[in-house]
Amino acid sequence: MLTFPLLALAQTDQTRTGSIAGRVMRGDKPLAGILVFANRLNQYGGWQPTGATTKTDGDGRYQLANLAAGNYLVSPCALADVFTEQRALSYGKPVLVQAGEVVENVDFALVRGGVITGTVTDDSGKPVVGVDVRLLKKTERGASLSYFSPLLYLMSRTDDRGVYRLFGLLPDKYLVRVGSEEDGTPVRNRFGGAYHPPTYYPDVTNEAEAKVVEVTSDSEQTDIDIKLAAAQSTYVVKGRIIDAASGLPIVGARVQLTKLSGARFGTVGLERTNLQGEFRLSGFGPGSYTVALAMEDGFNYYTEPKKFEVVSSDVAGLELKAALGNTVSGRVVIEGTKDPTLLNVRGLTLGVFSEASDRSGSQSARLSLNPDGSFRVAGLRPGKARFNMGFGAGAMFSQARPIILRTEKDGQSWPHDFPIAANENAFNVRIIVAYGVGVVRGQVKVSGEPASEVGQVRVSLVPVPANTRETRMAITDAGGRFLMEGLLPGDYQIVAVPIRPAADGKRRKPPVPQPIVVAGEKETQITLTLDLTGEEKP
Amino acid sequence: MNPLLCLLVLLISGAPALAQQGSAVNAPRPTAITGRVLNEEGQPLRGAMVTVFRLGGSPPTGAVTDAEGKFRITNLTPGNYRVAAALTPLVSATNAGPTFVGDDVTLTLVKGGVITGTVSDTNNEPLVGAMVSAQRVRDAEGEPASGGGFGSAMSDDRGIYRLFGLPAGAYLVVARNNAGLAANAATDAPTYFPSASRAAAQEVSVGVGAVTSDINIRFRGASGYTVSGTVSGLVDPNVDTNISLSLTVGGELVASGFLYPRAMGNRFTLYGVPDGEYELRATRQGFHLNEPRISFTPLPVRVRGGDVAGLDLKLLPAALLTGRVVVEQAPSTNRSCVSNRVGRVEEMRISATSFDFAQRRSLIGGQAVPEATGDFFLRNLSAGRFRLMTDLPSDSWYVKSLLLRSPRLNLPSARAQSGAPRVLDVGQHGVTLAVGEQLSGLTLTIAEGAASVRGRVVTAPGALLPPHLLVHLVPVEATAHELRFAVAQVRRDATFSLQHLAPGRYWIVARLAMPSELAPESPAELRRAASAAHQAMELTSCQHVQNFVLKFEAGVK
Question: Structure pTM?
Answer without folding.
Answer: 0.73
